[in-house]
Write a structure and sequence with these properties.
The structure is a homodimer of 218-residue chains. Chain A is mainly α. The first copy, chain A, folds into two domains: 5-64, Orthogonal Bundle (Arc Repressor Mutant, subunit A), CATH 1.10.10; 71-208, Tetracycline Repressor, domain 2 (Orthogonal Bundle). Chain A has ten helices and no strands. At the A-B interface, helix 1, helix 6, helix 7, helix 8 and helix 9 of A face helix 1, helix 6, helix 7, helix 8 and helix 9 of B. The first copy, chain A, binds a DNA duplex (30 and 30 nucleotides) through residues 1-3, 7-9, 13, 15-16, 19, 40-42, 50-54, 56-58, 60-62.
Chain lengths: 218, 218
DNA sequence: CGATAATTTGACCGATTGGTAAACATTACA
DNA sequence: TGTAATGTTTACCAATCGGTCAAATTATCG
């Protein structure tokens, strides 16, 4: 008798490890484009190169697959924000945060789209994570930014909307990739667009926050 | 015998006018949340308060409904960018463009999400509009911005990425509304968040582009 | 009013959906 | 090697999908 997912022995076999990886990879392909409702198990099965019942042997439902995928990706996705350091100096921290986020938009566009799809649908599967861990992390970093402003290191500004604007501008290059390519045209839609974006955004945020214009405080 | 959509008389009846409006309104509700693939005719029919065959009497296929919806919304959506005036002065033009886009995110979030969904899925239904009319419009406005930079009225910057960043930051408040609310928490997620966003974004872009720091040219 | 066109609906169709049952194949391990 | 656990597949299910059809209902207008 086959007991799906973690049988008698609580340890996962090599095959489980491999196949679950394979499935989540395919699921990311599909969910990130069509969203939860618009994706089908058959699609995922085809991309994964295995039969539908075989998928369902590892993940009992479509929801379970989506859930597992979100859980796995969420940590990675928030890493750049976690790396945001209170002890660093504002300019380099903001610069590297923008760069890191842009690199993720370039290297992991599917992950970005997965979350975007989830948000558009009202975050029915991750609302708790948003209100819990995410909010706490943002609150913490917002406090850092506020302290910088108080110390006169950057211009006074709403730290939450600053974070939102960095999120949105960078993720835009993953989520709206088709639009960006279409508008830039063939000449400028090459890989260099991420460099151009980085240059522009760094300039915008550094100057916009007057990071360097302020005399060294303390 | 009933000939669907524009019968013998080429003029549309009052009922046609009303029902089509009613259907597109419902379709906007549904498509904007679930995307094209994730939405069903039955859902739309239920929201519209009419039977499924009745919907299909006015729009022969799901695609036709989506198409009509996109067409209707696209014009409205690009209006703020069209209003972007070359003869105006940079500061007020950029300020009012940001305000207008934020107002649209506030007042027409479903329209914003409809497009966002379409982009995430690779724009299978609107790619031509992106490469054609949209690109031309952006090219034109980018030229305006470039001329401002050349005249020393604003800092030198990539006009395309400037436009992208205004799009993304403003639409973020519609597309990622759940996330914004979750992170801001109950205290700050009220209607005032749009005012806060406007203040922040205006400051960011005006200062970031050094609009006022530059001595009056010519 | 009467008649013709426009509108609406219930019943239905084949295809696809998420998911199951059980037979079959493979692996791990004593 | 044998055998029990694990992995895979074929066949299938009820529900839902997009869409059709013909009959019934309603609006329009002379």
């Amino acid at each position: 008798m086959a007991i799906p997912r973690a049988a008698k022995t609580q340890r996962r076999t090599r095959i489980q490890e491999e196949k679950e990886e394979q499935i989540l990879e395919a699921a990311l392909d599909v969910f990130s484009v069509s969203g939860f409702r618009g994706s089908t198990i058959d699609q995922i099965a085809e991309v994964a190169g295995m039969s539908k019942p075989n998928l369902l042997y590892y993940f009992r439902t479509k929801e379970a697959m989506h859930r597992a995928l979100i859980d796995r990706v969420l940590d990675t996705w928030l890493e750049p924000l976690r790396a945001f350091d209170a002890d660093g100096n504002p300019e380099s921290e903001i610069r590297s945060y923008i760069r890191r986020k842009l690199e993720m938009a370039r290297d992991f566009p599917r992950e970005s789209r997965l979350f975007a799809n989830e948000m558009l649908q009202g975050a029915p599967h991750v609302e708790d994570e948003l209100k819990g861990p995410l909010k706490e992390l943002v609150d913490e970093k917002a406090e850092v930014i506020r302290s910088w402003a108080k110390a006169g290191k950057i211009a006074k500004c709403d730290p939450y909307h600053l974070i939102f604007s960095i999120w949105s501008t960078t993720q835009h290059y993953a989520d709206f990739d088709v639009q960006v390519r279409a508008v830039l045209g063939q000449e400028h839609a090459g890989a260099g667009r991420f460099e151009d974006a980085a240059r522009f955004l760094e300039q915008l945020f550094i100057d916009g926050l007057k990071v360097k214009c302020v005399p060294n405080a303390s």
